[in-house]
Amino acid sequence: MSRRFERHRRHPCSEAPLSTDAPEEPEPPASPAAPEAAGPRELQGVSNRALSILTAAAGFLCAALAAIGEIATGAVRTAAFAAAIVIALGFAGWLLYQLRPSRTTDRRTRMRRIAAVLVPILVVTAASVPVFHWVDRTPDCQDPIELTVLVPEDGAYGFEQAIADFNGSDTTGSDCRRANITTYSAPWPQVWKAFEAGWAPVDSDEGPADFDPLRDVGPEPDLWVAESQTQVELAGQAMVAAGGDRVIEPDSSRPLGWTPLVMAVPGPVFESEYEDEQRSVLPLGDLARELRDELGMLRSDPTVSYTALTALRSLYDERATTSGTEVEKLLASSVAQTGLAIPGSDTDLMCDMALREPEAALITTERALSSYNRGEPLGANCPLEDTGRAALSPVYLQGAGGLDYQAVRPGWGDPGEAERAEVADALSTWLAGDETSPLEAFGIRGNEHNGGVLGGDIEFDLEFEDDTEPLATDEPDALLEQYGDNRVPTNVLLAIDHSQSMDVVDGQERSRFDLAVEGVRTALGRLDPKDRAGMWTFPAEGGDTYVEVLGIAEGRSPDDADLLYERPAVTGIDLNRTIVDGVDAVEAASEEDDVKAMVVLTDGADEDSSSTSAAEVGDYVANSEVSVYVIAVGEASCRSKQFTEMTADSRITCLEADEDQIRSTFDSLFHRLWS
Known about the structure:
The chain crosses the membrane at residues 50-69, 75-97, 117-135. InterPro entries: VWF_A, vWFA_dom_sf. Residues 1-41 are annotated as: Disordered. This protein has 675 residues and is an alpha/beta fold. The protein has helices at 3-9, 40-71, 74-99, 107-135, 156-169, 188-196, 213-216, 229-242, 267-274, 284-291, 306-315, 324-338, 346-356, 366-374, 417-432, 475-486, 512-524, 575-589, 614-622, 641-646, 662-674, and strands at 145-152, 179-186, 223-226, 254-266, 279-280, 296-298, 360-365, 392-397, 402-408, 490-497, 532-538, 547-553, 595-602, 627-632, 652-656. The strands form 2 sheets. Strands 1, 2, 3, 4, 5, 6, 7, 8 and 9 form a 9-stranded mixed sheet that branches. Helix 6 (188-196) packs parallel to helix 8, helix 10 (284-291) packs across helix 12 (324-338) and helix 12 (324-338) packs across helix 16. Residues 1-23 and 31-46 have low confidence and may be disordered.
């Protein structure tokens, strides 16, 4: 064999020559025929079909995520858009890859691949657009009608919740909200005063208006929820007296429901004394005398609360064996013993009750008791944090009457009133209800109430009925006059901050001190001959805390306010020590049954130099029988640390007032103190 042939016979992986003499190995037996492998064209078809399905699903997912991003909000919206962008970028990358020049795949094949992916995506996306448009359908809504509703201060929370439920459900046929309802509350005396003024500012001889309904109450209401038909008639008379074409038609009011006056007592007292006989025919005055040895009796201020005003009829009932003067002494003694400040509204009374839980009976309404038992918020100014309260149960007062809530539309004669009237009427109808009223959840008996469950029901007598008529329109003034005659004397010390910051004019026509003097003048004008008043300014020059302008005595007049100008402004402030010394002065000048109060006005702009802390002031006042009212103006705030610590005791009340509200704040406060 030639060497060239031998080289060809070598194993490619070996240098050793192959032997030509070796015997040939037998061929292995033939194996069964294997199936023919799929060719390139068949593999490409399967790949294209799978890729079409996957990319169609990806396209649908991308469209879905984009739609979710349109209708969602917050983190969901962000995540949906991000996922849609990632999928879109991935598909764009694949598309660019397919469009690149390739030596192994011709252009026609690449275009078929792209078409196999794009066509399903376009079909699925086109089909999904109407679906997502239907899901995200947004009706073409017109602007909702703006409606303003005025509700009573007592019970405001329940009315606001019920009106909010109506506002959320009152829509047009295309699910558009028909109205945007704004609800606010105000006490009855302020509401009546606003109607008396025709809801226009009452001009003052100097400076801003003494009373501005828009500022001191709120905007003109399109619907007013009154506590009684009597209020509606009195407001109508006031509007007529104000003149103009603004009117209230008393006959147009719609009854919403009623709530009886009750005497609320702690659970143990109810179980031992009233569980077997829950209804009383005794006038309230006789009940107060009956309870005086074991339980005091508290009520809100009749000059502020319409509930307390209505209760005067039973307190001064001619059938009672207890005189009106004796009744007022009993009530004043209860206030002093429980350590509460004179509560203004029924809501204030309930807040004090929840905070202090005194052993006392309350003159209130079944509705207020329902709110208390259900743990409702007790007014924006109530510092109560824990809603856990010891439940109270009612004793029903036969012949005492109650509140008969009414809805009425004042006529303001302005454009758009007809549209607002339509919504107001719908709201009134909804609140009144048919067989049941939504107000029953908040403790108000509907017009058709027949013993059904009321919210906050703890030992409620749901079968109780009282046909006593509401107060006549001439009764409120007559009852308040009796109240003024019967009440015990009030002794008040007015302490006015005359630090240098109070004399700053700061762009105003008058300084804060000027406005404070006018407030004092207004307060002294409310004095009854049996009341006593004194005046201090603080701080004082040298080491003294205050300057006594007038001692606490009878016979003070509005002109005495000018004496405040005789004391010069002094740097610094000694508020805490002034309050402590003032409490001592009031107690020293008062008799046992007298109402004792101190009113302090300060702007708080100067640092208190006293060594007495705010907490010590609170403790000192708590151990006295003096109610302290702090009027904070200017930079002073009732939310400051000092006033928060000081007012932790309910005998100290903080009132904030802007410069142009100082006079009206004094007027309102002393209307309560001196009636």
